[in-house]
Amino acid sequence: MSTTLLLILCLNGLQYGMLLFLISAGLTLVFGVMGFINLAHGVQYMVGAYLLFAFTGLTGNFMLSVLLSLLCALAFGLLLEFFVFRHLYTRSHLDQVLATFGIIIFLNELAKVVFGPTTLSIALPEFLAGSIQLTEQLKYPIYRLVTIGVGLLVAIGLFITVSYTRIGMLIRAGATTPEMVSALGVNIQRLFMIVFGVGAMLAGFAGVIAAPIYAVEPGMGDNMLIVAFVVIIIGGIGSVGGAFIAALLVGLIDTLGRSLATEILSFVFNPSFANQIGPALASMLIYVLMAAILIFRPRGLLPAKGVA
Hints:
Layout: H1 3-34, H2 41-59, H3 62-83, H4 93-115, H5 126-129, E1 131-133, E2 139-141, H6 142-164, H7 166-176, H8 178-183, H9 188-210, H10 220-235, H11 240-266, H12 271-283, H13 285-296
Antiparallel strand pairs: 1-2
């Protein structure tokens, strides 16, 4: 493998990892603080992508569309929390799984009705559509670099918020001893609403960022949800820092593994067979890592303090 290809794969892995972090950060907060299993979290990723498509068509301005999409993703998450999810907090996990799975089916079908079942694409504005020369032999798309940078900024902002602000203190306390937080007079329902709204906005933001790169289609959030659960298990439930480290690991392992597995298999099998089997075997690596974490560090790499 050439050095240029390796750099491209690493950058693609970082970019994919940042998307996973944006989804997983909200999911780990909702699961860690509220103990709520929200299978519809991946649908909020899809909603963000469709919102960007709709607003781009209406306004013709990409940056304005991003802002409007974020606000609508936040509002959509708060509405879901108010009308549906808050009525499930005291119910069993099975009830939560069934209810949120129903929301997945409903919103996926609604997307087909409103936007059609076909794959949609979003054109980038001119200032984000080019490439930048990183080395003599490597040009890399500006938008993917921006995605990495934005993901890092969000990660830093979340870390500062969770670690050094009052609301962050309440979130950390809620992730470990929610009964005590409620007993101290904190409006736990309002805390849950804030956490859920932020989580929905982060998932929607991930969809907004991913929309110009990946296909916008019904069900696009389902696979991302599965990988996001892998990320929070590896990182530690309720831990934003753990979600960040795990998302980068999963992104790099998945991206590098697909190429390396194919190259390694090509030494043993013919190239056609290696190209077919390599990516499938590589996709198993993140689940092997998850299994190893569950065996040796069942609380995750960086569990939230106090989590049993």
